[in-house]
Amino acid sequence: MRDALKVCFAALALGVVAMAFVFRRLSDYELPDTRSAALAASLPFSGVTVLALLLGLVRCNQPDARIINSGVQELVGLLVLSGVWVFFILLVGGAVILPLPDREILGRISANQESTSPTRTWSCRVSNYRGCDNSVSTDVWRIMVDRVLSNGVELEVEARGHGEPVLLIHGGFLADASAPLLTQPLLTDRYQIIHYHRRGFAGSSRHAGPCSLQEQAADACAVLDHLGLERAHVAEHSYGGTIALQMVLDAPERVATLALLEPGGIPTPAGARFRSEVAEPTLARYHAGDKAGAVEAFLIGVCGPRIREVVDQVLPPGAFDLALTTDADTFFGTEFSARLDWRFGPEEAARITQPVLLVLGTESAAVTPIYAEAAAMLNDWLPQAELAELPGATHALQMMNATGMAKVLADFFARHPLLSPTETMGDVR
Description:
Helix content: 40-55%
Order of helices and strands: HHHHEEEEEHEHEHEHHHHHHEHHEHH
Distance between the termini: 44 Å
Strand order of the largest sheet: 2-3-1-4-6-5-7-8-9-10
Shape: globular
Low-confidence stretches: 25-38, 94-106, 108-151, 425-429
Number of strands: 10
CATH class of the largest domain: Alpha Beta
CATH superfamily of the largest domain: Alpha/Beta hydrolase fold, catalytic domain
Number of domains: 2
Number of helices: 17
Largest sheet: 10 strands, mixed
Strand content: 15-25%
CATH architecture of the largest domain: 3-Layer(aba) Sandwich
């Protein structure tokens, strides 16, 4: 009898610990309605268990042997009930903790370099990772690749929020330039914001050789494949614009809408002057061994003299230092020449039928006219395009005015929702 009581109390204690653990996790994250309901459904089990325990103890204290036998039977039933309850709690806990899609997810995707097909292969495991945005530390769940294709690359990907998927494609140098958008409730409360580090940036695999814009576009499709998404809203910044435009040309069925945040690579009248005054001198400094000087001069040439101050204020710690090292090799060593070989004009623009948003910083032209000229040309080539200006920003758009950018993007996506209500990101397993 005492052994039965010990087992009963142990099962009850285990259930309480499991419930406390789940509730601790729930306090940090917002649950979808279905999982909230499942968790709430487990609460009656706790009440029944406690009542049955009390009843069994009372009966066991009675002198009547029949009552004692009844109490033992009830305790045995209680053990079964407690086991079911503990199993259910742990099951719900596992469902909440591991695959919850609207939690921050930092992962690695294995992409085959040899093929331009958007189809990719990957395998993954889950481990805990402590990440941060500026001074606030948050739990990030990292999906790591266990096996990389022999001739493949790994791409880091992070997702936040819930709703229709939005794929962000960053530009050159600053791999985390889109980070300010990941903490904007205007976006994360309504959309699943997916941000990945392109090959050669941050913790993603280094370039093994030349990399075309077609391969970069295929990488973007691989991110969607990994997350089980047929298509998404796509938003780019700077060099990411060349990738997004190539993506919509190569795989138009994957792009629901296209938001172009001062895209690079568009031939403009001011382009020749920009190359002679900014691009070519900074490239020469890089090849001379002055990486830091080359990166800083280029960023000042496109974003203005305050760019270092802005980066240090709004991007994760070490973002600028990362740009001065590995990211510089990627941009100057690989992507610079790939963009020179890329062509986009009226004929290519005519193939784009998706809704397009063109975003231009109100202060951008004061630094360089190339992005304002590119926006005007794209606006002429794309009759469906919508033009928006972002106040108080140069080319460092979302870094200088993240809230304004989030509103512009959220309003655009709301005007052009995905046609299918099922096109949202499912559990990442």
